[in-house]
């Protein structure tokens, strides 16, 4: 590998401070750095334009600088591009951005020497239908969330799986997470940890009114439909923590396997079982 795209979260002071050093480390490893066009000239680097896939043509892999949220934003950019990526953690937890910034020199050396593996992480697709028309469509690496907007009143949901009624929920919202996303919002809401290579979805209610409404793990090939019961409730659809749009009256949210996958580039010798407990106790 020779050409590496760098996706920095410049809102993080630690990233801004370390970016010149990171670019130099990339060059020392024998790799050519590519930076967003608005800052590339400052580092005498080649450039790309986020959101314009034709500018990615010479890039072989991407590296995010930030935390898991930064990697998720990068995954959104790369969802329809067949390109591997990894994250360098300048945040706190780092389940996805698993390379610590102190480990970057060795990780880049492995990358330039082609000593890496690629894991395919399954993504989710969500569509919001009204009268058979698609109002919103999105893809997520971690999770799709249907939840309340600004109104604090509890919402009511009817959930179907493969067209069959599965549950009627009174809750603040519903999280549908991928296996990769089981360590994110779903975990915080009481959902189980799932090995990221499993082809499953995790359905976790947020603050359910009834104790019997528990998280559910289902095969990834199932189709989940969430229908909202309106009573003055303001609801929104979120994808990987980003608001996609409001959910209007008489809408159905459909969540299923996405046709896209995230190619997660592994340059760390640690496996899932080595790291999960360490990260949870930070």
Question: Can you tell me about this structure?
Answer:
- This protein is α/β, with parallel strands linked by helices.
- The chain has 2 domains: 3-116 and 267-280, 3-Layer(aba) Sandwich (Rossmann fold), CATH 3.40.50.10330; 123-260, Probable inorganic polyphosphate/atp-NAD kinase, domain 2 (Tumour Suppressor Smad4, Sandwich), CATH 2.60.200.30.
- It is 19% helix and 42% strand.
- The chain is built from 6 helices and 18 strands.
- The protein has helices at residues 13-28, 37-40, 68-78, 104-112, 185-188, 272-280; strands at 3-8, 32-36, 46-48, 61-66, 85-89, 99-100, 117-130, 133-140, 143-148, 155-161, 164-171, 173-178, 200-206, 216-219, 224-229, 235-239, 242-247, 252-266.
- Strands 3-2-1-4-5-6 form a 6-stranded parallel β-sheet, with helices on both faces. A 6-stranded antiparallel β-sheet has the order 8-7-18-15-10-11, covered by helices on one side.
- A hairpin with a 2-residue loop joins strand 10 (155-161) and strand 11 (164-171).
- The longest helix has 16 residues, at 13-28.
- The protein is elongated and about 60 Å long.
- It starts with a strand and ends with a helix.
- The model has no long low-confidence stretch (mean pLDDT 91).
């Amino acid at each position: 590998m020779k050409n590496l795209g760098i996706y920095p979260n410049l809102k993080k002071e630690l990233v801004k401070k370390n970016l010149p050093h990171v670019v130099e480390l990339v060059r020392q490893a024998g790799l050519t750095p590519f930076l967003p066009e608005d800052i590339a000239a400052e580092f005498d680097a080649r450039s790309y334009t986020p959101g314009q896939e034709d500018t990615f043509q010479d890039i072989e892999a991407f590296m995010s600088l930030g935390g898991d949220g930064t990697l998720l934003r990068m995954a959104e950019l790369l969802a329809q591009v067949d390109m591997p990526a990894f994250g360098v953690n300048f945040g706190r937890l780092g389940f996805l951005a698993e390379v610590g910034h102190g480990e970057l020199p060795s990780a880049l050396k492995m990358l330039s020497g082609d000593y890496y593996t690629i894991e395919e992480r399954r993504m989710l697709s969500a569509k919001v239908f009204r009268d058979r028309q698609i109002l919103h469509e999105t893809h997520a690496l971690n999770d799709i969330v249907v939840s309340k907007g600004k109104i604090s009143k509890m919402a009511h949901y009817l959930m179907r799986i493969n067209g069959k009624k599965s549950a009627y929920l009174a809750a603040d919202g519903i999280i549908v997470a991928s296996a990769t996303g089981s360590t994110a919002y779903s975990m915080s809401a009481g959902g189980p940890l799932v090995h990221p290579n499993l082809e499953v979805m995790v359905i976790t209610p947020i603050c359910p009114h009834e104790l019997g409404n528990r998280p559910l793990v289902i095969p990834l090939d199932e189709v989940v439909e969430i229908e909202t019961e309106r009573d003055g409730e303001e609801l929104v659809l979120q994808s990987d923590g980003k608001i996609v749009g409001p959910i209007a009256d008489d809408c159905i949210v459909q969540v299923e396997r996405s046709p896209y996958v995230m190619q997660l580039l592994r340059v760390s010798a640690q496996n899932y079982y080595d790291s999960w407990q360490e990260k949870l106790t930070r």
